[in-house]
Amino acid sequence: MSLLRRFVRESINSRFLLQSISGRSISTVNPNPIGHPGHRRTTAEFDNLIFEAGSSGDFEAVRRLLNTRVVNACFNTTATFKFLTNTESYSSSLEDLRRVLPQTDAGYTRKHAYETLIARLCKLNRIDDALILIKDMAIGNFELSTSTFHPILNTLTKKNKIEEAWRVVKLMRSHGVPMDVTSYNYFLTSHCYDGDVAEASKVLRKMEEDEEGKVISPDTRTYDALVLGACKSGKVEAAMAILRRMEEEGLPVLYATHAHVIGVMVESGYYALSVEFVMAYAGKDKRLDEENLGSLASKLIKRKRFNEAKLVLKEMSVRGLRMGDALRDFYQTNVLKS
Question: So what family is this one in (predicted)?
């Protein structure tokens, strides 16, 4: 009996015994690429591992990594499916991804993997393929939601493919997925960027009379789009009125919203008014002051409105605001030495 125990004890770790049982040689490849105990992978490391696996065609490893990264709170990023590019291998890689994604862990892991891939396809301008993934999610009951459609709507409206975007909205509703304020904002921004106030007004009415019967309240980006539309139409007073409405409703104003107003004022020749505008907001947010005053000074210098530019730069100096190199040179040469 002691001889038998000795044989088992000595053989249990024997590579020869394991090889004999399996009938094949023992691989020296680490079956767990996630890392050694005690080492916590970063989000970037998971992206790199998925890139390597996807590029080499190891989609089972891609599936495992998608599962493991979420467990480790390293969520997907815009770089997760970066191996998928518009090359000869695109079609086969996409089919492999369609095969393995349904095998990822149910719930958030699977849903977010699909949504990240859809965003990647939109980046590659593969809208039809993104819609195929939407169909896959619907068939598999993989929790379609409004956010799933956001990259598609964003891409289409940016390319001014408005009719196609509304067809996607129809598809959303056929799956019981409602529009939200972000979805409407994509349409609104597209029309406002073109200065098409009439079409923008139609979108606003759609928001107020949403087909789902919900009240869709405008948010900061809604107002930013409206300010942009007013500025593109050269309607400075309307842009100012929208800003005042934002303040009355207690909504934060984006830096970009101020930039729209400053830009149209300078382009319209309202130089003194533009200075008054930025000064009215000065002192509340240092970074906003740097953005507003710096941008205005640069635009005034470009228009050769040096007196107004000097006034703005003096104000920046008094307030201790950071200037870019070009503005600093202009200030030292034309303000300090004058």
Answer: Belongs to the PPR family. P subfamily.
